[in-house]
Amino acid sequence: MTAIPVLDVRQVSKKFWNKKVLQQISLQVSRGEVFGFLGPNGAGKTTLIRIILGLVRPDGGEIYINGYQVRGAFTRAIARVGAVVETPRFFPYLTGRQNLQLVRNLHPDVPEERIDEVLALTGMAEHAHTKTGAYSLGMKQRLGIARALVNDPELVFLDEPMNGLDPQGIIEMRALIDRLSSRGIAFFITSHLLHEVEQVCETIAIIKNGRLLLAGKIDELLARDTETVEIYTEHPDKACLALDNAPFVRKRRLEAGKLVVDLERGSSMDLNRMLVASNIPVRYLVPRKSSLEEFFLEQAYGEESV
Amino acid sequence: MSGLLKNEWLKLANNKKLYFFLLAVAAFQFLPVFMTLFLKMRTLNGQVYPLTMFGVLVSFVLPLLLLILVAETVAEEHTAGLLALSLLHPVTRGKVIAAKAVFFFTVILVFLLFAMLFGYAVGTLLFGWGGGFMLRGTAFPTGKGVAITFLSYVTAALPQFAFCQLVMFLAVVINSSAAVAGIAAGIFIFSSMLMLLSDEIKPFLLTSYFNTVPAVADFAIGKTGVFAQFSFPALYALVFFLLTVLVFSKKDMLF
User: Fold this and answer.
1) Distance, in angstroms, between A140 CA and closest chain B CA?
2) Which residues in chain B have their CB less than 8 angstroms from residue A78's CB?
3) Backbone phi, then psi, for B232, in 5-degree steps?
4) Which listed site, A48, A111, B27, B244, has its alpha carbon 20 to 30 Å from A61?
5) Strands A155-159 and A81-84: what pairing?
6) B79-83, B220-224, B250-254: the lowest-pLDDT one
7) What is the largest CA-CA distance in chain A?
8) Residue A132 with chain B: CB contacts under 8 Å
């Protein structure tokens, strides 16, 4: 028997004033999965989150959370969902604790102690009695996550969760997401910090102009039949000529004084041999790891990014 | 819905505006003291004092305070992205609006009862309890005087609530608290002026029902029924409540 996905988005479309902002978007998130949702500014990321959360009505398509349809059984679908949409917003004249109390009051089954638990979990216990109007952006991010966790959710939406966090905060946030996902909580994360997404997410989807470009496991998406090597030499032009007819070279380009070569996987030794045979002194040969950032730029912007 | 109501009160109790509004009501209720001192009026006592400023309080002061409160609670929360927070939890949009409506009704009652008790306290402390209760030239026994005062204050909640429903409707349609307050104030002033122009149109203007003393006093004397007097504000409140729920249920929350 297949497990029901915690989030199942089917063919969702939305238009604003005749502009198609989402076109037939479908994706699934499994229990405990950390899902990265990427796209350039204005691609439709936040609109999709708002539609999933019932804040915006879709023009077409269906959304299921834990098997409950958001449109027909909203209260059951949303009961175990936490969310931080865009910058976390709070009532500035209430303390951090009071802002969480507002959420607790809407979930009678959640014990009062849960507020202290989530405050401790996000490192906000010592600021619990400070009015949120005095919070920094980083503190608001942490309290936003605390608020998203009050109702003991199974699915958490985080829109740019690393915004405003200092390096230590980012490390702690990463560890927190990791810890919670291992307990079975699924995360749906949007972020422009692709390096962070690569570290916390297992699966990603890329959206551009309201269309889903691709979705899949990061490892599988980044696996290619080529590898890239950077050649550091005093004579990049000579090296370029020497590799002209090499059958294993797919592509080569000069980048800030170094030669960057895309090779058939496993042929770096042949490259080394050919450079030595051509009497080209090489200082370093550095394999370049395929990063999500490069992959994203390639997918989202194509030739524009080169 | 009790959770939503608790939240509304938690927010208001921690908002300085509540205390500013109560202070404004208290300051207004204190005005007859100055009138007595400067104009040498010596007709006040503790029994009549709460109704001295009642007409102006419910016809002008309270509606203006309420429109600010409603505009802020609904329109400003919406544009600040705070109204959407409740909608991320297992509550329907209809319940969110119903909770706000019940909350406004309780706030109105609190304002009115505070004004009445403050009036009794100031009147009795400064002028003594007095020998009797006089209203529009008719003397009533003390018990009946208290009942008329209490009923006038309590029944004033309904037309005020109906006005709140109108402002709430504007607040879910227009995404700007300043615009909501401005339009609501405009409607209020225009309606108050129309009342002066024609008696025929009066029964169809909500502002005509704000001052409940005449209806309650007539009821006490046995001339007319209170309920007939309040059916229009009740209908008005119901229509605008339903319209608000309808619009809000279909609204895209883009903030």
Assistant:
1) 14
2) 88-90
3) -65, -50
4) B244
5) parallel
6) B220-224
7) 77
8) none
